[in-house]
């Protein structure tokens, strides 16, 4: 008996749909004449963002028209599905905008194309680039070579050939990988490796050469695809597996076992058996235990608290017992509860007082002078201190000559 043949659904080989058929409903569109609508949308440009994650369309509709020099008016709107539109009043504005392509926003390329009455999920997709061809031998700088390259890469729009450079403008599919290197075979059996340098290109993936994502987000990255942390089967772990895995993991910090520390301290002869590089024993180990000696005590640092030692008859024999009531009067506290240990050394109290003025100079006049009405020259003169520096004479600072007025 031949074995049963399994279907594609049973094998799990059925192509997965991007949308759930149970939630997506199909509706038949009616037929009508839409020629008027086609004429109405002829002055419309359709655009698409290459990286919707980094290119919000709401901001793009505001900033992209600032790069244009328009004579008329242009209005933009969001069409959804990473697409947008701009409607123009003048035909020459459309030609001016299309001739200055390509455009970019937030470091990513923007696809901008004239509207066409087509129904396609990949429209718009064409983006033009000026390409510098590097590596082509000089005796093959011919228009036939350029036509051949343009036919293989995309649609040739324009080209320039000079004595110093060869360039071509090609419209490429911006949703597909772009070609940056190519090999040209000649009839003689020789080949030339060409490098294509795109002018005005922005961010792109260097792994798959697409304009839609970074290299770290590339789905064709072999390192990213084979990474165990990103594998779906590794992410779906049960609670029992995670508990079992956590028990097998070793903790980062493993303290030294207590029983081994005790055994180490009990082995007293280990240290005495150790020798230095000269063959001499180390001797006895100095104890590192905290001594029982009391710390220093002075007027600045108060004495630390120590428990009261009881004697044989139950009385306190501690010499550190403090009488807070007696010390309160010393430090000026009102009651023992207000006692605070002062951190400043006590010293003599100083009081400010006014400095005494020096006595006036003694008079050497006769007794005949009336003491009630002294002479003007004998009046009291204020005490003058000696100058710390030299006295400057008037000759050091001569008076400025007076300038006569017009009346004089």
TrEMBL record:
Keyword Metal-binding carried by entry: yes
All residue ranges annotated as the CCHC-type domain in the record: 205-219
UniProt-annotated stretches for the region Disordered: 1-21, 225-394
Taxonomy, superkingdom: Eukaryota
Biased composition (Basic and acidic residues): 1-17, 232-242, 263-283, 352-366
Gene Ontology molecular function: nucleic acid binding; zinc ion binding
PROSITE patterns from the UniProt entry: ZF_CCHC
Keywords: Metal-binding, Zinc, Zinc-finger
InterPro entries, alphabetized: At4g02000-like, DUF4283, Zn_knuckle_CX2CX4HX4C, Znf_CCHC
Protein name, entry field: CCHC-type domain-containing protein
Species this chain originates from: Brassica campestris
């Amino acid at each position: 008996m031949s074995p049963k043949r399994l279907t594609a659904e049973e094998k799990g080989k059925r192509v997965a749909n991007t949308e759930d058929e149970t939630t997506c409903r199909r509706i038949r569109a009616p037929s009508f004449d839409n020629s008027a609508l086609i004429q109405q949308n002829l002055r419309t440009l359709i655009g698409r963002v290459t990286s919707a994650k980094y290119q919000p369309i709401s901001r793009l509709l505001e900033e992209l028209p600032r790069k244009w020099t328009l004579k008329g008016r242009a209005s933009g709107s969001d069409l959804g599905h990473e697409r947008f539109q701009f409607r123009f009043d003048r035909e020459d504005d459309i030609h001016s905008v299309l001739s200055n392509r390509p455009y970019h926003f937030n470091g990513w390329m923007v696809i901008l194309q004239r509207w066409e009455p087509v129904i396609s999920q990949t429209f718009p997709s064409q983006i033009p680039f000026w390409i510098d061809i590097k590596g082509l031998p000089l005796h093959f700088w011919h228009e036939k070579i350029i036509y051949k390259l343009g036919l293989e890469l995309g649609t040739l729009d324009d080209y320039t050939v000079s004595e110093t450079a060869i360039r071509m403008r090609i419209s490429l599919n911006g949703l597909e990988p772009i070609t940056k290197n190519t090999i040209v075979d000649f009839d003689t059996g020789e080949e030339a490796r060409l490098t294509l340098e795109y002018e005005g290109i922005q961010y792109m993936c260097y792994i798959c050469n697409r304009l839609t994502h970074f290299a770290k987000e590339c789905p064709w990255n072999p390192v990213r695809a084979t990474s165990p942390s990103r594998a779906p089967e590794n992410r779906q772990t049960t609670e029992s597996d995670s508990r079992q895995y956590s028990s097998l993991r070793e903790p980062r910090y493993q303290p030294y076992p207590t029983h081994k520390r005790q055994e180490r301290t009990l082995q007293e002869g280990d240290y005495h058996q150790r020798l230095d590089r000269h063959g001499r024993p180390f001797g006895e180990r100095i104890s590192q235990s905290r001594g029982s000696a009391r710390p220093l005590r002075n007027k600045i640092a108060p004495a630390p608290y120590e428990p009261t030692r009881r004697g044989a008859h139950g009385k306190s024999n501690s010499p550190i017992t403090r009488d807070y009531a007696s010390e309160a009067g010393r430090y000026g506290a009102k009651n023992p509860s207000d006692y605070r240990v002062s951190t400043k050394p006590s010293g003599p109290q100083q009081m400010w007082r006014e400095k005494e003025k020096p006595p006036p100079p003694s008079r050497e006049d006769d007794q005949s002078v009336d003491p009630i009405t002294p002479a003007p020259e004998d009046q009291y003169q204020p005490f003058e201190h000696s100058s710390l520096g030299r006295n400057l004479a008037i000759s050091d600072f001569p008076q400025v000559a007076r300038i006569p007025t017009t009346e004089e």
